[in-house]
Amino acid sequence: MIEILNPAQLDRARETGALVGHILHTLKEKCTVGTNLLEIDRWTQEMIVDAGATSCYVDYAPSFGRGPFGHYICTGVNDAVLHGLPRDYSLVDGDLLSLDLAVVLGGVAADSAISFIVGDTKPAESVAMIDATERALAAGIAAAGPGTRIGDISHAIGSVLGEAGYPINTEFGGHGIGSTMHQDPHISNTGRRGRGYKLRRGLMLALEPWVMADTAELVIDDDGWTLRSATGCRTAHSEHTIAITDDGAEIITAAKR
Length: 257
Ligand code: MF3
Ligand code: CO
Hints:
alpha+beta, four-stranded antiparallel β-sheet, five-stranded antiparallel β-sheet, binds cobalt (II) ion, single chain
């Protein structure tokens, strides 16, 4: 379903988005060498509960995962890129960590993801890959506005990722979002200008460019959830929820500092 939010719902979306941005920013500050992925999940649960919000993940049981997710945040390390199920693993120096979080507050959902390097060792290829997903996200946001089409966003994202030299997987991408996390339309991370659904004011979208260094092929972990690069290469993911406004797009999940 495609939902168009009214001004009151958009105000509530801003609160949800600020919470998601705040939690991710807080986690980025807290994660260090030795932090366990299950600890990150527990911190996230506490922050969601304290804010009176509800997790979009814990009971989520889509066709692409095994049973309810059972956790509060996706934690992907290195080759794990999407739907990373938190597990008993302690981060080491130089790990590339992707965190993906969606919650509902006041009846409105917001969804965002960040990738960053843990510790002091910053491998140049990993930094470049994270940077490419962030630039692709910025390009996708810049392309969004009333009257533009989903294909314009997909094209903008795909151009940045492609020019940076990454293969693009089209199985998973962005999505509409509103009272629930996953709604139509699907937003591929590559596409053609002028194609697809025409954007309208009040529409909320989650844009989420993600890449794997040297492959477009995913494999699923034995945990039934975590999607990894087929070659074992490193991966990165950046996501914001945006709302279409009168003259462009507003980032809903930016972290306030
Ligand atoms: N938030 C993810 C997305 O960006 C979806 C995670 S689904 C989960 O669309 F079940 F793995 F949590
Ligand atoms: Co999403």
